[in-house]
Design brief:
Elements lengths: L8 H13 L13 E11 L12 H16 L2 E7 L3 E10 H23 L7 E8 L3 H17 L14 H8 L1 H10 L12
């Protein structure tokens, strides 16, 4: 996520020039598919600071706020997980350009409220957000496993079902443990998500 920080000043300039020459956005990858798709949305706190659980109940409150936001602004809500410094969710979004403005407003409102609570005016809370559309069924089910395993991947818990701020509990109840294990083995993560947190 912060790859550009590892580049020298000259490397950064060359990268921006190359992107300009190819009519690409200067500092972000292009978003080619923006309408009526199922997307994985990921957002992280600035420099991955664990701000969501900086005070007691913030993880719970933010999770509830995020779920209300997604249910209000997306067609259908499928998967989600919230950790102390980032979140992921999968939802059907009709127009990514419209949604982008909505998520920026949600992040801004949240940041203002938390900075007021923490007496840290102007602190940057959210870095940005990224989106990936689900290409096929395999991609969706691998994402399903990635999201539910995320708290284990980040050493928050030993077993994915121990993390309370995730859609895993809904799916455990819906599918049962045996079906969840079948999905896990049928759609292995391999290198899925490698480098996303760097």
């Amino acid at each position: 996520m912060y790859k550009s920080r590892k580049l020298s000043e000259n490397e950064r300039r060359e990268l921006v020039e190359e992107r300009k020459k190819n009519s690409l956005p200067w500092h972000s990858p292009p978003h080619f598919v923006k309408k009526d798709r199922v997307f994985l949305i990921t957002a992280a706190c600035f420099e991955h600071a664990p701000i969501f659980d900086a005070v007691q109940n913030r993880l719970e409150e933010f999770t509830q706020d995020l779920m209300k936001f997604v249910e209000t602004h997306c067609e259908k809500f499928f998967l989600w997980v919230v950790l102390a410094n980032h979140y992921h969710f999968v939802a059907h979004i009709l127009d990514l350009d419209v949604f982008s403005k909505q998520v920026q407003a949600f992040h801004s409102t949240t940041a203002i409220a938390w900075n007021k609570e923490d007496k840290t005016p102007g602190r940057k809370i959210f870095h940005s957000y990224s989106d990936r559309f689900m290409r096929n069924e395999k991609h969706y089910w691998t994402t399903f496993n990635y999201i539910h395993n995320n708290p284990v991947r980040h050493d928050c818990v030993k077993k994915w079902q121990e993390w309370p701020w995730s859609s895993v509990h809904f799916y455990l109840e819906k599918y049962g443990r045996e079906k969840m294990e079948e999905i896990w083995y049928k759609y292995p993560l391999k290198n899925y998500g490698k480098g996303w947190d760097n």
